[in-house]
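Issue 218. Parser rejects a valid record. Input:
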Amino acid sequence: MFLRVISDLKRWNTEVCGNSQLIPADCFSDIKTTHNTLSLWQINENDNTEIETFAVLSTLNRNELKKISYILISTEELSSIGLKFSQTNNVPDYLNSSQNNVIKHHYDITDIDHQSYGKIATLFRDKIRGDQLEIISEDPVINAAKRLFQNGVINIKPLKDKVKQTIQAPI
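Output the parser choked on:
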């Protein structure tokens, strides 16, 4: 099972999917990746700590720590619509590179072109409409970020000031 964070700060028009309804957006507005990939984290869907960990790792580049919305996607769902995915080491610069036990969970949907973009968008839209959008509230997000920092999983230096302050604040 894979986790993908969905930004509810932006809105993405699903016109590409033949529907003009606005829904919570993913990173499609800034899909300017070097290799036409979209990041996913492989998780155990029954482990809340693991879900929080990888959801938070996906959002530490934001301006502040707050609630996180995410969806879960199965290997079968990706494969059934012809999307290719592979394990990668393309992880954020704030992730401590010695954390192989964390890095091994990082995957990318690869070779994204216009057709696969539409398939991804449709999959995400259908999950959101099917009430499969999950939310982690702000307190567990902050606690998970503090735990990641205390355990040496993340480097705090590349993070934005407000995120640094929140992580370093006393519990």
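Fixed in the parser; the record now loads. The helical segments are 48-57, 75-80, 100-103, 114-129, 138-150, 161-168.
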